[in-house]
Every structure is written in C-alpha cells, then in structure tokens.
Amino acid sequence: MRFVKALIFAVTVMTLAGLSSLSAAQAKAPINAVATVGMVADAASAIGGDHVKVEALMGTGIDPHSYRQTRSDVVKMGRADAIFANGLFLEAQMEDLLLKLQKRKPVFFIGETIESEKLEGSTAYTGRYDPHVWMSPSLWQGAVASVTDAFISMDPENEQDYRDNAKAYLAEIQELADYGAKILKTVPKDRRVLVTAHDAFTYLGRDFDLDVVGIQGISTNSEAGLQRIEMLVDLLVDRKVTAVFVESSVSERNVRALVEGAAAKGHAVDVGAELFSDAMGQSNTYEGTYIGMIDHNMTSIARALGGEAPLRGMQGKLGAGH
Length: 322
Hints:
Order of helices and strands: HEHEHEHEHHEHEHEHEH
Number of helices: 10
Low-confidence stretches: 3-26
Number of strands: 8
Mean pLDDT: 89
Oligomer: single chain
Strand order of the largest sheet: 2-1-3-4
Largest sheet: 4 strands, parallel
Structural class: alpha/beta
C-alpha cells in the first residue's frame, strides 16, 4: 500500500513538473511578428532580439506602393501576434486590410508615430505625407523608438532587453547619420543634384543638402509623361548633371530615356548606381539590412556625384556578398 501511494505521489510530482515546464516553455515562446517591408522587419528583429520572431512579407525588389497581399500573406497576418507596417500610405493596396486587422490584433504603423511637422507632404495623394521616412536616419530613429514601445506593451517582463537592444540599434543609426553627413558634404556644390527613378529620396536630400528630382512621383503608380522626361533632360543639360540613378524596386526604363535624351543633346550622363529605395538588398547580405541599405545609397551617391567616400562604405562591408 505504501508502495502504491509512493508511486502515485511520484507520478503526480512528475506530472506537475511536466506541466510547469510546459507552461514555462509557452511563456518563453517568441512573439510572432509580421512586417510588411524589410526596413520595418529589420528594426523589429533588432529590437525584439531573442524574444521575437519576425517575417517580412515583401522582399528584395518588391514595390510596396503597388503590392497586393497574397493568400499566404493573409494567413501569415492572421496567425501573427502583431503586425508592423510603415504606414503613411506606403502599403497603399494593403491599407484597408491592415486597418481591419487592427480591430482584432496589434497592428503598428511605425512611420505614423513621427510628428507630422517633421514630414513632407505627398505630391501623389492629397492630405497625406511622403512615406519614405527610412531615408532619413534621424526620422527613422523616431520610428524605431515606437517599435520598442510596441514590444514592451506586449511583453513588459522583458522591457529591459527591448530597451537595451533599441539603444544599440539607435547608436548604429546615429553612426550612419554621421557618416552620411561626412561624405555627402564632399560633393561639389554644382553637382549636388540627385536624379532618381521615383521621388523616394526627399528626406535624404533634406538631411544632407541635395536637390532631389524624381522622374515619377512619390508613388510608383504615377506615370512620367513625355513632357516630364523632356523637362528633366533639359535640367540635366543645363545643370551639367553627369549621373542619374536607377532603383532596385522600380523599372529603369525612364532613367534610360533620360540618358538617351541627354546624349541626343550632346551631354553625357552615366547611370551612377542602382539605389535601394523601397526595398533592401538581398537577404543575408550587408545591403540586406537597413544600415547596409542606406550605407550603400549614401556611398554610391557621394562617389557618383564627385564626392569622397570609401569604396566599401562605412563599415567596409559593401559588395561583400553572402
């Protein structure tokens, strides 16, 4: 009888211990977060650390302005504990769905936490703002801070970890801002014109004193007519601009038309580089991170416009591949 009681007691203890272990494991399960674009996913992953599992819906070369969610995207967002988006109508075709999901689960539009007086108005949509806030490291720091608050609201027990991760990430972004200021000020005054496929670089130009001209508007859904191309060809010739830039997520057709138009008027223009505008570089590369993406852009622009910048960028990692 004593043996039976002892056996029952042992089994009970083991069962309770197993349940306790299961509860602990469940409590430590990472937050399942889905981000719309890579830049937002990078911030969420850096700040969330081991407490968060982050997946981006849009990868390299994807244009978020025209992207429509797939069936698998809807499933992923439906299963997620939280969704992070840039907002400011960047994900224009997904906004209605994101707002509907926000009624059922946490959906954070991190770009919309930046004070409106710091934003530029949209040339494409009345009453809206330019959504390309990641192009300004200083603005992006404000958006990143909101990611920290979001994770703390969901997981207050790990608040200090989130704050520590954010501090380290924000320090990297500040280093990036300082690097950009250093190299872009070396671009000669008469060559400080940045001509790109679409108007995604306004905040970068504002931060670093560059005249930014996009062939298309803020949204890639806008079309560049023949008159617009002709006007920009005249600008290239008149201001003796020698480099224009294509973008990884936008067709280069219009940029090539500018180059050809300038050549027809006896003015040689090179394609300075492919810039990352609405999407980061390939995954598992330095350019596939936010820091690497903006480092690539700043370094490429400075070098193409006659400034001084190291070939491999701020950390010597550009072009290193996988």
